[in-house]
Design goal:
With 335 residues, the protein is an alpha/beta fold. It contains 12 helices and 12 strands. A 7-stranded parallel β-sheet has the order 3-2-1-4-5-6-10, with helices on both faces. A 3-stranded mixed β-sheet has the order 7-9-11. The protein has a two-stranded parallel sheet with strand order 8-12. Strand 1, helix 1 and strand 2 form a beta-alpha-beta unit. Helix 4 runs parallel beside helix 5 and helix 6 packs across helix 10. The longest helix is centred in the N-terminal third of the chain and has 20 residues. The protein is globular. The structure holds nicotinamide-adenine-dinucleotide (NAD) and 2'deoxy-thymidine-5'-diphospho-alpha-D-glucose. The site of 2'deoxy-thymidine-5'-diphospho-alpha-D-glucose has 19 residues, from helix 6 and strand 8.
């Protein structure tokens, strides 16, 4: 099997490439990634010379390039996206370009090359947000995105389904909750807080710290995607979650405790505009139909993640000391 992975130099995509090459000795992978601020070839250094793996630097919006690559593969797995909600609030243009137009280009190309199998990686944020006592999201929850990021992901999901309905493109979609683990860019809650604490900085908790997310260790997500590619029903959507709902402040205190730091490091800062209150996922469909469920508990996953950032200091220090630092200071210095 030959896979075209888009966005494979990012957090989840690079974990997925590692997962696939380890599990399937005879699979081949082409990784198409534009290497935006979030793409990092250091994530794939250990496999860069593996004969089963090839990296192509390029944009999923580039029609000719994508057409050349798609011709040659069996399955397309689309991870490529602008993925950070705060950035979409500051400027949504790249989100519309990559998440909507880029996905459209991949779908067109898959259609024009004999209807290639297409798996689209999406998010639970397309469903909007929940009140404390609402039941979790599932595959029938109506879409109600509330940030430019989630609206762009919702658009892409609709396009993917439209290509199934109209052209019988063999698609599947997965909508997953918050991931964490190795290679996560240190602008997102968990890696930002771990690395800030390692640098002796404060950790900026938005609003009252009571926003709830459902956390899934990234390797569990990779396993779920693999099971959908292998056994998922064409045209279907699968919700993936960690059964691990936690308010941000609880996570913050847990990270502080596991790292032996003081709660004086907590700094409550101005809230994210339109901040979604709670996400939660009912993953019974993928559990009942494909036999997948999360294996790594939150405590175990968090310990592994903290260890990874401790052992890979140069990985995140390179990021935090470069352009990202300038971006962060320009945009968040008032927080
Ligand atoms: P990420 O930001 O770490 O990585 C995105 C990757 O896409 C980067 O390598 C970047 O260079 C690449 N990319 C961006 N624009 C591109 C373009 N135009 N052409 C080619 N490559 C491009 O993102 P992530 O956290 O790994 O998320 C991957 C996917 O999973 C996204 O679609 C995201 O919406 C979804 N998702 C993420 C989470 C999460 O918690 N991180 C949860 C659910 C779903
Ligand atoms: O739910 C899935 C989504 O999870 C993915 O689709 C997105 O790509 C991914 O970025 C993530 O979105 P969130 O907005 O939930 O993740 P983030 O890590 O940015 O924030 C998690 C929570 O922590 C959220 O309630 C905001 C809060 N937060 C975040 C940061 C960066 C803080 O309190 N302080 C911070 O500095």
């Amino acid at each position: 099997m030959k896979l075209l992975i888009t966005g494979g130099a990012g957090f989840i995509g690079s974990n997925f490439i590692h997962y696939i090459l380890k599990k399937y000795p005879d699979y081949q992978i082409i990784n198409l990634d534009a290497l935006t601020y979030a793409g990092n070839l250091e994530n794939l250094k250990d496999i860069e010379n593996d004969s089963r793996y090839k990296f192509v630097k390029g944009d999923i919006c580039d029609k000719a390039l994508v057409n050349n690559l798609v011709k040659d593969v069996d399955v397309i797995v689309n991870f490529a996206a602008e993925s950070h909600v705060d950035r979409s609030i500051l400027d949504a243009e790249n989100f519309i370009r990559t998440n909507v137009l880029g996905t459209y280009n991949l779908l067109e190309t898959a259609k024009n090359n004999g209807n290639k199998r297409f798996h689209h990686i999406s998010t639970d944020e397309v469903f909007g947000h929940l009140e404390p006592n609402d039941p979790p999201f599932n595959e029938s929850t109506p879409y109600s995105p509330r940030s430019p990021y989630s609206a762009s992901k919702a658009s892409s999901d609709h396009l993917v389904r439209a290509y199934f309905n109209t052209y019988k493109l063999p698609i599947t979609i997965s909508n997953c909750s918050n991931n964490y683990g190795p290679y996560m860019f240190p602008e997102k809650l968990i890696p930002l807080f771990i690395t800030n604490l390692m640098e002796g900085r404060k950790v900026p908790v938005y609003g009252d710290g009571m926003n709830v997310r459902d956390w899934l260790y990234v390797e569990d997500h990779c396993e779920a995607i693999d099971s959908i590619i292998q056994k998922g029903k064409i045209g279907e959507t699968y919700c993936i979650g960690g059964n691990s709902e936690k308010p941000n402040i609880e996570i913050t205190k847990k990270i502080i405790e596991l790292m032996g730091k003081s709660e004086d490091s907590i700094e409550y800062v101005k809230d994210r505009p339109g901040h979604d209150r709670r996400y939660a996922i009912d993953f019974s469909k993928i559990k009942n139909e494909l036999g997948w469920e999360p294996k790594v508990s939150f405590e175990e996953g968090l310990r592994k993640t903290i260890d990874w950032y401790k052992t890979n200091e140069s990985w995140w220090k390179n990021i935090k000391s470069g352009d990202y630092q300038k971006y962060y200071e320009q945009n968040y210095s008032n927080r």
